[in-house]
């Protein structure tokens, strides 16, 4: 609870302190010195801003309603040639200090850090449409997907329940694109692995990668908040609040027309970062579900790829 002294600190100054901490990654002692206040005030102001953003402004991370989703689909098709694509999904990891308790080892990831995972779905402009954060860093991306509310919402037809499109004689439902660390599902298209002698598969993978660049740009943009530049010296709950707050701020800036202003090599860095970690192929294969669902997903991907080839997408 605030002391009377903290309550006397003007709101603008409290917000400025918190934003300075998130933007620069400065230690609380450095924030306190810059603003002429105590370390505890700097800590509380940062926590309060993050909590307020996550509780009062979470609509900035809401999945689009049908009319807005139609615009997302059109933009993905314009950018990548993929039709009926509703978003790009991927996971990234944010370093934290070693958590307390018996499950600390679960947070140890393949990069030899303790971390928490955030799973993002973004549109072609890298606006975050859905986020699930707080999973232990040692968890595989496919398992994170399965544990997320996103998976349940799609499986229960609460999301991606809009009209399908015809491609090569097959109905292609609304879907997301993800990398090879995720399972192939009727609503989740991942790249082809066996592309030899199949030009249409090579072409599909190229267009698929263009669509997935959107989520890599979102990762790179989030990491411009320097609070994520080193291991966060906070507990998991606070780390999740910081990730959520910066995700909301990211979307707010995009809404105001601020450019991402990213270098291409940053995208490669974060692509490599994720490829180093937790591609548990056995789990991916398990998560591809029943043979019937898997066969349907294979047919959908083939129809989508061949339909793009026939339509002359280049």
UniProtKB/TrEMBL annotation:
Q: Kindly list the places in or outside the cell where this protein is found, as annotated in its UniProt entry.
A: Nucleus
Q: According to its record, what are the GO cellular component terms? A: nucleus
Q: Which residues form the signal peptide?
A: none
Q: Which Pfam families match?
A: DDE_Tnp_4
Swiss-Prot/TrEMBL keywords? Hydrolase, Metal-binding, Nuclease, Nucleus
Q: Does the keyword GTP-binding apply?
A: no
> In this protein, which residues make up the domain named DDE Tnp4?
89-251
Sequence similarity: Belongs to the HARBI1 family.
Could you tell me what this protein is called? DDE Tnp4 domain-containing protein
Organism whose genome encodes this protein: Adiantum capillus-veneris (Maidenhair fern)
């Amino acid at each position: 609870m605030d002391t009377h002294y903290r309550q006397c600190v003007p709101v603008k100054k409290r917000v400025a302190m918190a934003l300075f901490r998130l933007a620069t990654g400065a230690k609380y002692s450095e924030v306190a010195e810059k603003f002429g206040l105590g370390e505890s005030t700097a800590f509380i102001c940062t926590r309060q801003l993050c909590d307020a953003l996550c509780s009062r402004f979470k609509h900035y991370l809401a999945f689009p309603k049908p009319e807005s989703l139609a615009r997302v689909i059109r933009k993905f098709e314009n950018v990548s040639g993929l039709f009926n694509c509703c978003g790009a999904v991927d996971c990234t990891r944010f370093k934290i200090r070693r958590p307390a308790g018996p499950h600390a080892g679960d947070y140890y990831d393949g990069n030899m850090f303790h971390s928490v995972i955030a799973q993002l779905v973004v549109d072609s402009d890298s606006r975050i449409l859905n986020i699930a954060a707080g999973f232990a860093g040692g968890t595989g991306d496919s398992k994170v997907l399965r544990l997320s509310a996103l998976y349940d919402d799609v499986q229960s037809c609460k999301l991606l329940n809009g009209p399908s499109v015809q491609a090569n004689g097959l109905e292609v439902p609304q879907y997301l694109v993800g990398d090879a660390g995720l399972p192939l599902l009727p609503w989740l298209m991942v790249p082809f692995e066996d592309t030899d002698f199949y030009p249409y598969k090579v072409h599909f993978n190229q267009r698929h990668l263009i669509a997935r660049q959107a989520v890599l740009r979102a990762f790179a943009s989030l990491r411009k908040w320097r609070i994520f530049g080193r291991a966060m010296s906070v507990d998991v709950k606070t780390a999740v609040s910081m990730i959520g707050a910066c995700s909301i701020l990211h979307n707010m800036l995009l809404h105001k027309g601020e450019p991402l202003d990213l270098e291409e090599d940053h995208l490669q860095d974060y692509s490599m970062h994720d490829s180093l970690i937790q591609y548990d192929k056995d789990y991916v294969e398990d998560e591809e579900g029943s043979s019937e669902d898997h066969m349907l997903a294979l047919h959908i991907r083939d129809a989508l790829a061949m339909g793009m080839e026939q339509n002359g997408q280049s």
